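This part of the workshop introduces the protein records we will be handling. Getting from the letters to the C-alpha cells is the skill we practise here. The record below serves as our worked example for the rest of this section.

…
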Amino acid sequence: MAKARCGRILGEDIYIEEGDTTTLYFINQLRAYQVVLAALKALDQDICHDGCSLPSTVNKVIKRLGKLKNDLEASDVAAEKKGSLLSKIDSFLADASSLPQDTSQTCRKSAGECVMGSSCFATGALNLFKEITEPEAPKI
C-alpha cells in the first residue's frame, strides 16, 4: 500500500499507509496537542501565568495525554509507529508538566486584571480539540 504524508509533529513529517484510520486518529490528536501546548506556553508568558485557568487547563491536558497514551498502547497500531508516537506523547507530557499546575491562585479575569473580553484563552485553547473530528476514535 502507498504511504501518505498526514502531518508534521515536533518537526517530523509523519507518513502512514493509506486507509490506516487508527494510526491517523492518534496522529491527528497529537497534531492538536502540539497546537494546544504552544498556545498554553504562550499564555504562560502573559497574564495567565499567575491565574487559575491556565493551571486548570494544563491539568486537563495532562490527564487527556495520559488517556491518549493508554489508548495508543492498547491499540493495534504497528509497533514501530506506536513507539514513535508514544515518544511524542512523552515529550508533550514533559512540556505540559513544565507549565503551571497550581489551581489555588485567583483567576486574573475575576481579579479584574484580564480585560480581553468575556472568554478565556486558556479554556479556549482546550476547545481546539473539538475541531478534530476525523477519523473517529478507534474502539479500544
Observations:
- Residues 3-131 form one domain.
- The chain has one domain: 3-131.
- The beta strands are 3-9, 12-17.
